Recover the amino acids of this structure.
């Protein structure tokens, strides 16, 4: 599946590099000095590259842990994110990564330990209250696990952290190492969800919604705290019926107590990002709707956003405690 | 004047591939396999084309300066659109035999490694990938696992600006592995090395054309839009609006003829207004869409 691996000279001898590379014995390895020389080239074509991304193995030098954008969170006041990887196996049409990066190649930072020490520093710098760390901001937290082994290494780190929660954001049904580990109550496995009909059109290469529901049911049975993420909410023909069916099947499949949190958020893009994504996929049905632009943000507009949020809350009300429900208003 | 004349010719031409090749002997197998014919003799560089298959070929001469000049020249002369694939193919030195082995280049640097390019959608199923060093002078102290040529880097840097990295390709055939072989290189030998790889080159061209088709669909302006642009005056910003709104409209209403939708338009503003009005009812995932 990966035919070419670009490897930074400095991580050539890193144990993790060797492990990852050994999983692609037929791939061509090409030495580079820094990942940016491949990843940030301006003349790249994200859409064509997405057909066959290469893997870049690199070392991250700074910004291991960053404050989450305002409006992003699931209950704690202090929210941070980290990105051990850029880009994703899936190809969701609304994904902000395609408007943010000029390259569709996967970058995997192999120096996980530097992330861990920065996470610990962040906790000690924020001495009071709980902190949530979000993984899966610039990638899917689980989809690349078989290759990266990131969670296998990261979960034990979090098991010792009393004031910190970790959110894994995913669409993957690849459930290792979660199924073979004891569940951790400070690790929330959060699935991004939308009605099946819409996911079929938009969540390219990602598992279907029914497979995602089956996966989160298994995780719930094992005792992992589950997050449900309706983010972005997609406006479409008959959207109420579609969301009603989706919420219905989720609530039927999941015991209420397994739900750690539910968050929802509108589809919003910074203007420049929207225009980049539209340029890549000008014939995408999702973009035929007349989005509104205000203060540099392209969105469905307040009216539709509110109608959709209210409808979703109505579906959940009386079933899921409102304390577990959060609106996510960040735009990427 | 000549440039204008060719731009007009280029206007009716369904471009798909521009070949930039250093030597006539490297070009001959391509010219013959793809049935390219020589264009006018007044051009600064020899240019060949096949209007049916949309291929242009320019013979640049040796060296980066020539490669850059020829790439720019043909792009300007034919007003080559952004979805066209650019291919540089030719011989290269390599430390290991077999001679005649075809590679795709995935990374190119100059000798001091101050410039670097990563061209091409990779066709690793058709041929191995490798790296290339572009030198200013011929020499034969080849390191293992890297090809050596004299044009590749400049070509890649320029061609990728005219289209994109993924549509810029370098394919190299190993011609020599030591000084003795380098001295013995003759045009007939070069021709033979290229000719013996034509089967793979045909497959490559088919694959490249698929990518070009996809990019053309993404970037080309529809005839509907061209007709409207020729009929009414659109300012530069309105033209951009028209192109975008038309794409969205066509996606939402694929079965409505544009001429019918705009039948009563009397100005550029009317066209934009009609599109806006219709787009109000466009909604994602309609049963008919
Ligand atoms: S799963 Fe998330 S990160 Fe991956 S393509 Fe989809 S939206 Fe982007």
């Amino acid at each position: 599946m990966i035919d070419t691996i670009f490897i930074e000279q400095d991580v050539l001898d890193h144990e993790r590099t060797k492990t990852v590379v050994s999983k692609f014995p037929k791939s061509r390895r090409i030495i580079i000095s820094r990942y940016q020389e491949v990843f940030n080239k301006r003349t790249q074509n994200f859409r064509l590259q997405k057909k066959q991304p290469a893997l870049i193995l690199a070392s991250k030098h700074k910004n291991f842990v960053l404050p989450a954008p305002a409006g992003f969170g699931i209950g704690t006041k202090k929210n941070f994110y980290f990105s051990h990887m850029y880009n994703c196996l899936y190809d969701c049409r609304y994904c902000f990564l395609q408007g943010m990066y000029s390259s569709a190649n996967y970058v995997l930072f192999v120096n996980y330990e530097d992330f861990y020490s920065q996470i610990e520093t962040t906790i000690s710098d924020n001495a009071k209250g709980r902190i949530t760390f979000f993984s899966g901001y610039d990638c899917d937290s689980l989809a690349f696990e078989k290759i990266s082994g990131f969670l296998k290494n990261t979960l034990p780190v979090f098991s010792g952290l009393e004031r910190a929660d970790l959110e894994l954001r995913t669409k993957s049904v690849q459930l290792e190492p979660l199924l073979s580990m004891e569940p951790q109550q400070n690790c929330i496995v959060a699935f991004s969800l939308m009605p099946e009909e819409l996911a079929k059109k938009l969540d390219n290469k990602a598992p279907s919604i029914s497979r995602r529901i089956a996966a989160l049911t298994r995780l719930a049975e094992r005792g992992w705290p589950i997050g449900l993420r309706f983010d972005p909410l997609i406006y479409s023909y008959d959207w109420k019926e579609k969301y009603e069916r989706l919420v219905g099947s989720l609530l039927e499949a999941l015991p209420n107590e397994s739900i750690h949190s539910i968050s929802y958020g509108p589809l919003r893009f910074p203007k420049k990002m929207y225009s980049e994504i539209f340029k890549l996929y000008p014939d995408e049905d999702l973009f035929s709707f007349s989005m509104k632009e205000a203060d540099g943000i392209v969105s469905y507009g307040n009216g539709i956003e509110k109608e959709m949020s209210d409808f979703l809350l109505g579906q959940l009300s009386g079933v899921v405690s409102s304390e577990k429900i959060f609106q996510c208003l960040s735009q990427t | 004047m000549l440039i204008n004349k060719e731009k007009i010719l280029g206007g009716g031409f369904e471009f798909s591939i521009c070949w930039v090749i250093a030597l006539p002997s490297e070009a001959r197998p391509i010219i013959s396999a793809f049935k390219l014919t020589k264009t006018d003799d007044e051009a600064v560089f020899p240019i060949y084309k096949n209007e049916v298959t949309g291929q242009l070929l320019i013979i640049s001469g040796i060296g980066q300066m020539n490669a850059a000049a020829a790439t720019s020249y043909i792009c300007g002369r034919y007003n080559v659109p952004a979805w066209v694939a650019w291919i540089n193919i030719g011989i290269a030195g390599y430390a290991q035999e077999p001679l005649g082995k075809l590679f795709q280049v995935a990374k190119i640097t100059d000798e001091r490694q101050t410039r670097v390019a990563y061209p091409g959608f990779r066709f690793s199923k058709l041929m191995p990938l490798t790296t290339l060093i572009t030198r200013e002078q011929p020499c034969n102290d080849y390191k293992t696992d890297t090809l050596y040529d004299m044009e590749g880097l400049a070509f890649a840097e320029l061609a990728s600006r005219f289209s994109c990295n993924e549509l810029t390709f370098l394919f190299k055939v190993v011609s020599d592995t030591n000084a003795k072989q380098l001295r013995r290189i003759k045009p007939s030998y070069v021709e033979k090395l290229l000719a013996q790889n034509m089967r793979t080159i045909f497959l490559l061209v088919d694959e490249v054309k698929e990518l070009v088709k996809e990019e053309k669909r993404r970037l080309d302006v529809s005839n509907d839009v061209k007709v409207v642009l020729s009929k009414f005056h659109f300012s530069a910003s309105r033209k951009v609006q028209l192109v975008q709104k038309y794409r969205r409209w066509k996606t939402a209403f694929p079965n409505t003829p544009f001429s019918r939708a705009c039948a009563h338009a009397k100005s550029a503003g009317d066209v934009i207004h009609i599109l806006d009005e219709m787009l109000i009812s466009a909604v994602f995932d309609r049963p008919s869409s």
